[in-house]
Structures are given as C-alpha cells and as structure tokens.
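Changelog excerpt

This revision adds worked examples to the README so contributors can see how folded entries look when concatenated. The first example is reproduced verbatim below.
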Amino acid sequence: TGLGLAASDLYAWTDARVVLAWLRSHPSRWKPFVANRVAAVQELVPADRWKHVPTKENPADPATRGVTPAELSELRLWWRGPGRLEGPADSWPNEAPVEREEGEERRVVAAVTAAQDPENELLVRFSSFSRLIRVTAYCARFLRDGSRPGTAHLSTGELEKCRLRWLRIAQQLDYARD
C-alpha cells in the first residue's frame, strides 16, 4: 500500500451496516452507481478487511457532528480509536453477522429472447410488399448468376417467382399456427 503497510496489517472500518454488506458482496449484485463505487473501494481494500464499528465508537464520527478543533485535540477516540481495538486483531471482539438490509440496491437483470424465422423477420423489415419482392428478386439473381443489383431491370418472371415464393412462405407461417 501507499503507507508501506502489508495488506495483512490493514483493516478498514465503517459504522454503516448496509455499506458493509455492499463491500462484502460482488459489485455485480448492485445497481451501477453502487457497483462502480464498491468495485473501486474493493480494489484498494479487500472485502475481508472491512469491519463494523458502532457509531458511538467511530473515531471519524465526532468530526462530522460539529466538534470544535479544541475539543478534538482532547478527544481520545479521535486520536487512539476505540479502546476495544487497541490490542492485536485476534483479540478484537467478534462482529455480529451482517444481515441483508431492507432497501438495499439490487440489480435486476432480465433477458428475453424470441426465436424468429428469418422469413418472418424479412416480412416485417420492408416498408412494402413490392419492395420486399424487388429486393428478393435482386438477391435471387445474384445467387443465381453473380450479377450486381441494378445492372439490368428485373423481368416480370423474376418478380412473379419471388411474389409466389413469399406468398407460400406467408401462408406456411400463418397456417402453421392452426
């Protein structure tokens, strides 16, 4: 770390149980705002290094409650931390398990897939039936002899073949449901 401490010597504390629950979970469980911040914090301090401290024992709390600098200079909690944590880590009191908080942010993921026939997709993609017929006829011509679209006008026969093909496809799609 930047302080020259080994990671095994580093502990971080919070008096917010919901924050502790966030930090001890994978960021993907939370909505993006929380997930991004949890991921950033977890890069600095591993989840198993976060501990809970009651608000009344939180050394940072007095500074947020309007304590004057003169009072802080005399406040033991500010300078030394909670007395119960002065010994080695294995002598610290056991924490109560962090339970899931009501109102915690959860990311809800839903995936909907629909299998759609390629023919059905083409039927709804084009703005008109005549446009669908023309595009299909050019594609059929290209597949048949490799000529580029627009090189020659489509014949009535080419258009009619494609029109009949699409009518059959539409009937198969529609009557297959019956």
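The second example, added in the same revision:
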Amino acid sequence: MAIAETDALDVDADRDDVEFLLGLARAFGGAILFALPMFMTMEMWEIGASIDAGRFLAFLVMGLLVMILLAYYSGFEEADGPLDALLDGIVAFGVGMVTSIAILWVLGILKAGSSFSDVVGMAAVQAVPAGMGAVLARKQLGAGDQAGATRKGYAAELFLMLAGALFMALNVAPTEEMLLIAVSMTPGRTMGLMALSVILLHLFVYTVGFAGQEERAEGVGFWRTFLHFTVAGYGLVLVASCYVLWTFGSLDGGSLSLAATTSVVLGFPAALGAGIARLVV
C-alpha cells in the first residue's frame, strides 16, 4: 500500500514537472511572438542604451508588477495564490530577459564587444514586453481547459485593459511618428481621435461579437457599463500612454499641451490594445 502511494506521488511529481517545462516552453514562444516587433525596432535599442537610470528602474519595477498580476489573472501556469503569481512573474521576467539577450545577439545588435551596461539596458527594456508575452502564452499557446481559467471581477477587467494598453503603447511609443503626428494635430482632431478611441474600445470589448468578448451583466444598462468600464478603461489608457512616453523621454522639453496631445495620439493604438486584451486573456 505504501509503495503504491509512493509510486502515485512520483507520477504526480513527474506530471507537474512536465507541465511546468511545457509551460516554460510556451513562455519562450510567447516572449518571441509578442515582442518580435520590438526586438527589430532601432528606437528600442537606442532607448535601452540611453535611458535615464531612475526611469529605467521604475520601468523594470512596473513591468515586473504587471507580469505578477498577469500571472495571477491568467499566467502560463495557473497561479493558486499571490505567492504562485509572484514566482510566475519572476520566471516570466527571467524568460523575457533570456529571450531578449538571445534574439538581440542573433540579430547582431549585441556583440562580443558590447558593454555590460548596454547589454543589460537593451535586454531589460525588451524583457518587459517579452515577459508579458511569456505570461500570456499560457492562454494563447496552451491547449484545452488549462488555457481557459481567468479570474474575473471589476479590478481584473480594468487591470487587463491597462496591461493591454501598456503592451500596445510599448510597440509604437519609441518611434518619432508619435510626436510628428501630435505636432500636426488640431484641437478638433485631437477631440475626434479621443472619441474614436473610446468608441472602438467599447466596440471591441462589448459589441462586435469577437470570440471571448465580454457580456454585460444582466440588468446592467448601457450607460453604466460605458462609464464604469469603457470610460474608466480609456482613462487608464491615457495614463499608460503618458507613462510610457515619459519613460522613453518623448515628453522631455515639450509643452504640457504637446504632452497631452501626444498621449492622445499614442492612446489610439493603446485603446485598441486595451480592447483586445480582454479578448486575448
């Protein structure tokens, strides 16, 4: 009897090890898939080598926190609680870091003569979106019921929209086009872009019938849903956009009005990221 129980425990342990390794493999796949555009963007290389130390540290802390929360809500290995989510988030960041170094090395961006600070800077900046991709890999690259468990609730909905906005903003914020577009925008066009962003955010999450789309709670009207989720979500989109632009130095030396307009411009793709995040996760 004791031998049978021991064998059963060994089988369970082996199964857990296999599942973890499969989850880790999916995490590396997700890191490459989600962060590949940023690996091949020159502005991201330059930011990694020149970013201010304080902003760099804040960016890494923010990125790790987002990964931990993503792991809690829908990680590459189902988190049983905060400690599990913390460990999964740290693993995801490590996966993102290793993936970033490997891809940048293969692409010839990192060379044998690269300084330690350049290697760490370039890889760590890329590791944040790559790590987010590693966490999301469980849902997108997993199979069966394992890929379907996601915690719900108002805070979860808002956080997932924020994470989607951050991820999409990271894709385009480093480029000069954000500022070029912002400079050419009139106040009327800026307001119109804000309205379009809000409309698309709401349509993507609640209206057009994508797979995984949210359903309004029974008895909850349009305006309550619109204000509590869509408008609140767009507020988070603007916060995320402004933060990413500040981190990358895009707002340095500019006026407050230019900073606001640039945040709205970046908020357009970020709003789409917020809209599809709930569908993806």
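Reviewer comment on example two: Residues 1-151 form one domain. The CA atoms of residues 11 and 17 lie 10 Å apart.
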